[in-house]
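Researcher: I'm comparing several assemblies side by side, and this is the next one on my list. It has 668 residues spread over two chains. Same procedure as the others: predict the full complex and return the structure.
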Amino acid sequence: MSMNNQNKQDTQKRILLATLISFVFFIAYDFLYLQPQQQAQIEYAKAHPKQEANKNVNTTNSVSVNNTTANNTIPNIKEINKETIISTIVTTNSIYEIDSLGRIAQVTLREKKYVDEDGKPLKLFNATQLRPLEVRFADAALNKKAFDTAVSVSASKLNIQNNSQVLTITQNLGDTVLTKKIEFFADGHYKLNVSTSNNQNYFITPGYRPDIAADMYADHGALLTKSDGTLIIIEDEDMDKAVELVGIQAVSAFDRYYTTVLYNFKKNMQVSVMKNDTASPESFIHVSNSAELYGYAGPKEYNLLKSFDPELTKIIEYGWFTFLAKPMFVMLQYIHNIVGNWGWTIVITTILLKLALSPLSHKGMVSMNRLKELSPKIKQIQEKYKDDKQKASMHMMELYKKEGANPMGGCLPILLQIPIFFAIYRVLLNSIELKGAEWIWFVQDLTHKVSINNLWDPYIIIPILMGATMWLQQKITPNQMQDETQRKMFMMLPFIFTIFFIFFEAGLVIYWTVNNLFTIAQQYYINKMFERQKEERAKAHEAKKSHKGK
Amino acid sequence: MKIINKLFYYLIRFYQKYLTILSFGSCRYHPTCSSYALTEFEHNNFFVALFKSIYRIIRCNPLSDGGFDYPTTKQKFTKCEFKRIRVKYWYIPKDKNNYLILKNWEKNNQDKSTNVNE
């Protein structure tokens, strides 16, 4: 007996320890790894302001023109030297800035929801990195010259509020004249016709990925779609050597929410993916003489990408879970089109998913309640075989068989929750649509997370609410847990979950809370039903008695 | 046990030790899905064990009756040794070369002399 107690205490200790370790791991990971990493990135950028990509596809050294980049005194790596900007294109959603080498130096998002912590409009690119539409010639001498020669533009300012306008960028390199004709559309995407006057071979790039939401929570790097429908994803800091790819239709450099992409789904392109000094990918499209491409730099909004080209939605990816996350997103999108609010969309989707699973859970809950009436017998069994769980479980099973009721919900419903949770998690994580999406009251951003440094955040109410609903759900659910240790652990779960969920996206916590509320409602309904039945039986019994009495 | 079986074996052991608190008291079967899978991975080819374990979990939902469902294995008992053994499993003949596997619950049986062979 004492040995048994010893075992129990051990189990309890182990579980507590496991929980504690995983929690400590998360915090430590954030503090010791993620934050210093970010810090180091900033420091690195400060120390190496001239880290402009200057590796030629052709392996010849090209001279990079680096007076464009930020000087040492400016800590903001997104600041572009204004003097190098020769053309500014303002579209409805964004501002494109073209530098003196005919590249896109910066894209600033104009929509109100795309602002940084200080409320300033988001800027997509890191000024020290490879810029979109940079051209590198196969001919080394020509390439060198191209990096030393400023371009001329047809307009220094374009304001496009509807339809489209063309900007022509010309670079005169003696015998060769490089022309980029860029038709900018009001919605932010562009059509690019690039050509040379004398049949040169060269390479053009969509640039290095946007640098706003590149973290460990989601993939970032390069994504290429092939004509056979497959995707190639090359993650940052993960490259051994350069790769050559053919049959490519879209080349995207992406972080969690944003992309810079060049595509043409009517053509097959050859692409070289080079490795930069952090082993991250930089893609270059092979062009001989001329090419017609489409491009875009901005948030990966599903509807927007779809309006450019339905196939372009392929560049939104949800990691290896895409096969489930994508249908989930389509469902969310559909509901959102009806209700028009992402918060309510999550609530409704959760309820629909629970309804779909409710035939499963309903039957389980009903038999669980029936078993409540058998609890004396169950106690007896547990008392008798308290030293042998296996035997106890076998005799319980015999009892269930005899009574024709099995109180357990089954492993499948529990396991089913996991992929659904993951799919929703991935969708909430990767969908830019949810950024700045408000729900009700103080919930103004469904992707908001409470940070460890600032726990006095009104958003902390949501995980606390989640914990409360979870606790209530446990209270209302009859359970046959006899083991004191396990019961205690079980009671602690709401608290552990609350702590975990504090650092999750608000949307996800809302999903879990609604999930709990639905279960509570379902259980409440079943409990009431049983009470009613019991009363009716009692009444019938009573009536019989009084009848006999007469 | 092959390495891949071993990997799954220990993954399930980990689940049983640390994660069952999240799914406590769910299984409609005896033995539970996790111990069923454990025994399967111990006895059978990886793919057979995986398939049977997944099939078991799919069946483990409120629409099925649950109850007793033991793992099985195909085995030929050819050698017969007469010595003291520790019984871990009982193999109950089901049909030709097919055995139900029951875990032996009796503790301290090292001293008992038992013959698991046919």
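Model: For your comparison table: Chain B is about 35% helix and 15% strand.
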